[in-house]
Protein 1
Amino acid sequence: MSSTAGAVQPAVSLAGHNRISTQALTTLARAAAAEALGISAQDVRAEWSDDAGLLALSIAAPIRVPSLTEVLRDPSRVEGFGGTVWDRAVAAKTAILERVTQLSGSTLSRVDIRISGARISEGARVR
């Protein structure tokens, strides 16, 4: 049987082990959190812990927010950024968990986020 270009081939199972280093997982988690929170990956701290045999991820990071002056002038700016800080942190948990799982193949039990500050963003809407 011939295969067509772009067709997905089934994975071949070979003996041995595949391991993703903690450093690689941490870099991936930082990038996923940065994407979800609208900040730079260098601003994200990520730590891993064991949660009954699964990986638990703890993120500490600032979040991008509009200036208070902009919000006073136009309260819809909050929605333009994706909602309240609380709503965005809750949504980021799911996004980070899904992205890290998708790209690493690792199973995470949970993602904990601690918002450590705010990055004020002037001008254009984020979302």
Protein 2
Amino acid sequence: MSGSNRYAIDDVAFIGRTANEYERMFDLDLSAWEDESILDCPGGACAFVATANDRGIDAVGADLMYGMSPGDLRQRCEADIDTAIAGFDGVEDQFVWSFYDDVADVRDHWTAAYEQFIEDYADYHDTDRYVEARLPDLPFDDDSFSLVLSAHLLFLYMDDLSHEFHEESLLELARVASDEVRTFPLARFDGKRYPRLDDLRETLADAGYDTELRSVPFRFLRDEPEMLVIEA
């Protein structure tokens, strides 16, 4: 943990969100994407890929941790949840408690997500459903996915990831999307929005991509609840 008076962790946590959280974070109606393809990158310990495939969507997760065995990844999930939950101690007022009731409810959601993920990962980790990959270089062809979702890496870890990494990663996510890229959140844990968001949007525009900031029905950080949408 960091010694600051705001929520912070020393490394990118391998935790996940439920499909219900994803639907709200990305203002996503899964029924509208049946028979389409969706990439979740980085997928982390999220339950989205498992749920989406159950609903008739060709969903793929990409994450640098997906080369690990199911057993080792379960241990990593459990340890990272403990670390991430401990980080709320004394800084609960930095968050908006509307979707989640309290810190215990956050743990319940994150635990439910990783348990569903691990079960699916154990069955499909040696298939093309879970791909070991690291931004900003993805092993997919251009326009491989109708929709690309990217949560809780870009912007959230702005203090540790360079502006160039954000540029290259967004351009790479746009490259493999045929319709849209949706990225959430746009701020770090204390609600500070990424200060060079306009520069990133200009870079994307120069590369031929339209962008917009779109409101979403989910709020936890004290930033405006918006996602960055890139029209591929």
Protein 3
Amino acid sequence: MVDQQPLRVVLASRSPRRIDLIAQLGITADVVPADIDETPLLGEQPANYVRRLAESKARAVQERLATDALVLGADTTVDLNNEIIGQPKNEADARRMLKLLSARTHRVHTGVAVVRGNGVESLVVTSLVTFEPVTDALLDWYIGTEEWQGKAGSYAIQGLGGTLVQSTKGSMSNIIGLPLRETSQLLGLGC
């Protein structure tokens, strides 16, 4: 019987949510943030944007480390009517985003990429989120929690931001930041 070596994975992200999610797959990944330019290209569609960033993050870390480990990159964005709703710049921007999402359905796209040697495999997973009507009182309360900071669309569905959500369709782990089923398939875990 041949001993199987544990899967060595480098996560090209500093996201605590992605670190927790990859751990749910039984993987303790080395965490190496990519620190790339995340500016959308002119006219770039949200799903194409997250795929490009996921691939760019994974490639940047693989090249920097010159590693033979699998390098996993991911990026998540909120898409309202084909407009990229990224992370808020400040409290006023977070308020603007949450008001835009109020009582509407939006898409959450996560691009996932795995670099193996010179090759890259990538995919995009999309889920739907419908917000409750967000009252001024609810908005004031949620902004006061500061949970919106660093979150695409200015909310964290797995936290207090779940109070803003009426319903979801599709992968919940995708909405949080890393679709587990699809990620396990890209990593070759046999799921």
Protein 4
Amino acid sequence: MNFPSKLLENAVNEMSQLPGIGKRTALRLVLFLLNQPKAKTKELSDSLLELVERVILCKNCHNISDFETCEICSNPKREKSLICVVEDIRDVMAIENTGQFNGVYHVLGGKISPIEGIGPNQLNIDSLIEKVKNSEISELIFALSATMEGDTTNFYIYKLLDDCKINITTIARGISVGNELEYTDEVTLGRSIIKRIPFENSMKNVT
């Protein structure tokens, strides 16, 4: 792709690094921004810069937050003894949109995936184990996607908590195997949370 401007080429190259954005789509987006009033484009760039510089992770659950403790963890109406374990912020947003969960979350930051070089030490697993062992937790809900990586991560955490007397459950398999939570409709996801089952039962169903 030949560019009439090096500045345009640099912008397209940077934009094309975003997930799902190829060079042609990146070019279309950059040209769109270029044709907008400068003030409008500056608002976008300022918001992205502010996002990078000011957003932090909640000290309790590792969710993205504007403050040291996120709004969910600091909400006195949330059930702190009920923890839902998810992969990332998109899953928190998906579950919150169902309106069916009133506990708190623990964001792992990914799933165990040897193929991608992601091991347990690269995830927020140690802080979860510490939280369960040192706090009054009544139930831990596994809400990772129904994939091999998700199941592996669930089982790994389950074994680490083998000596803890807490209720460990997983969302019902109303979600198709291989599906990510963020792509599941709110009704199905909500029902899966409500009809969660003991994690031991889910292992018996794995063939």
